[in-house]
Each structure stands twice: as structure tokens, then as C-alpha cells.
Design brief:
Elements lengths: L1 H8 L2 H18 L12 H11 L5 H10 L2 H23 L7 H19 L1 H15 L9 E9 L4 H12 L18 E6 H8 L1 H9 L6 E6 L4 E10 L10 H25 L8
Helix pairs in contact: 6-11, 7-11, 9-10
Length: 279
């Protein structure tokens, strides 16, 4: 028998037939599952649990499935089967065609695949320093100011001037309670011109940032609320921060830029496969 097998293994025709049978067996084992057959596997249950429960820790999901009671497991299985039946029937009826939300979801999946293949995180780390150097101005921190103010209503301009004179002369009667009650705060710490504008209006914000840094009371400055005496406690000029101070934001912006470029390049490559006809 061994002699016969040895002789057969030397015959090219026998080797060809044997190889063909092997390939046919592999083909049969990979035959597509009919549309009316739903396979409930551990992996498919994990995937279903992950997205239906918005739980993205694979290790935790595996552990959760292992410790489930029989009743909980059966409920999850029935939930999966029900969802799978509805999805398949919806596709059979063509309900996914022309659906904008489904189209967007498919686009997102393909773009995510493009990001994965492009190794965005690794590229971003390598390009981070050069990117920051070229885009420093985008991370410029605005001028900031800290101040205390005394508020007077629109009819209180003269009163504001009297209180200012008393404050300068250090008259005991000149206390902060001399003003009126303000809608927002008495003191502001490290605020940008945009933030001050939100509470006082553009004219006041521009005027207060133009004041010289001094511990003396200054004003009165007009705002949309009335008039204000101002004492500046701190003031800083606009500046470009060090990379270490804004690293996370710079890295996020760089990844976003690389992702957009990668997705556009990927879409252009795929577009070459199609013929575009305008009507």
C-alpha cells in the first residue's frame, strides 16, 4: 500500500486531482449562508451588545456575556434575532435605498476605514512640531484683563466723576458701594476682549483694553448699561503659547487635517473607477 501511495504521489495527474478535491471542499465549507438563515454566534452577540448598549470596552462586554444568567442571555439573543429579521426584511423591501441617513452612515464607515489605513495617529505625532511652527498664529492667546469696577446708571455720569475724585483723594466716603447694583459682576479675572464685550458691549471693551495698566481708579467709561469707574489689577498682551501648553488641541487639529486630506485622496482614487454623466 505504501508503495502504491508513493507511486501515486509521483504522478502529476493524481496531485492535480487531489488538489482540486481539496479546493472544492474548502469552497463548500465557505458557501454563502442563505438569506433566511440567521446565525447566532458569540462574536455577533458581542457586536450587537456593543452597539445596542453603547458599550465599547470589548473585554468588559466579553465578561458581561459570560456572567449573564440564562434568562438574560436568552433575552439578548431574542433581541438580536428580532433586530436581524427587521433589518433583512427592510433591505428585501428596498427601504435602505435613497435613505440619506443610511447613505451618511455608509460614508462614515468608509471614511473611518480610510483613517485606519492612513495611520493618522502615528503621522500626527511625527508632524506635530512642524505643524505647530507653521500654524502658530492659529493658537495665539488673546490679550486678557482683570479689573474691578463701580457701576453707575445712565443718569449717573456726574456722580461717577464725584466718586472718582474722592477715590483719587482717598476720601473715606469714596467706597465701592457708592455705585449702583450691576447686572453681572463687580470684578473680572483674566477675561478677553470678546468676553468683556458680552457683558458690557464693544465700546466699553475697547476702551477698557486701551487704558494704561495702573492701580489707580480710571474713568468713567461708558457701556450699554451706563458708566463705570475701573481699577485694573492685571493685564497681559496677546501671546503665542508654548507647544507643551496647547499640545492636545494642536494634536487634535492636526489629526483632523490629516484625516480630511486622507479622505479626499481616498475618494478621488475611488472616483477614478466611475464614469460621470451630467444631465
Amino acid at each position: 500500500m505504501k508503495r502504491i501511495m508513493a507511486m501515486l504521489l509521483k504522478e502529476p495527474l493524481f496531485i492535480f486531482v487531489l488538489f482540486s478535491i481539496l479546493l472544492f471542499c474548502i469552497f463548500l465549507s465557505q458557501k454563502a449562508v442563505p438569506d433566511n438563515v440567521i446565525i447566532v454566534s458569540e462574536e455577533r452577540l458581542k457586536e450587537f451588545y456593543q452597539y445596542s448598549r453603547q458599550s465599547f470596552g470589548l473585554a468588559a462586554i466579553s465578561n458581561k456575556l459570560q456572567v449573564m444568567s440564562t434568562e438574560e442571555r436568552n433575552e439578548l439573543t431574542e433581541e438580536f434575532i428580532r433586530a436581524e429579521v427587521l433589518v433583512r426584511e427592510a433591505r428585501r423591501m428596498g427601504l435602505d435605498e435613497g435613505d440619506f441617513i443610511i447613505r451618511q452612515r455608509l460614508i462614515q464607515k468608509l471614511e473611518f476605514l480610510s483613517d485606519t489605513q492612513a495611520n493618522i495617529p502615528e503621522k500626527a505625532e511625527a508632524l506635530l512640531v512642524d505643524w505647530f511652527e507653521k500654524n502658530k498664529d492659529n493658537y495665539r492667546q488673546p490679550s486678557e484683563i482683570s479689573f474691578t469696577h463701580i457701576y453707575f446708571i445712565h443718569e449717573g455720569r456726574e456722580k461717577a466723576q464725584e466718586v472718582l475724585a474722592a477715590l483719587i483723594s482717598q476720601d473715606p466716603m469714596a467706597i465701592t458701594e457708592q455705585g449702583n447694583r450691576f447686572l453681572y459682576h463687580k470684578s473680572y479675572q483674566r477675561k478677553s476682549q470678546e468676553e468683556i464685550t458680552a457683558h458690557f458691549g464693544e465700546n466699553f471693551a475697547s476702551s477698557v483694553f486701551d487704558l494704561p495698566f495702573s492701580s489707580e481708579w480710571q474713568g468713567p467709561l461708558a457701556s450699554r448699561h451706563g458708566y463705570h469707574l475701573v481699577r485694573i489689577t492685571d493685564k497681559s498682551e496677546a501671546q503665542i503659547p508654548e507647544l507643551m501648553d496647547v499640545r492636545q488641541k494642536v494634536l487634535f487639529d492636526l489629526k483632523l487635517s490629516l484625516s480630511l486630506a486622507s479622505r479626499n485622496e481616498y475618494a478621488d482614487t475611488l472616483r477614478d473607477k466611475y464614469t460621470i454623466i451630467s444631465k
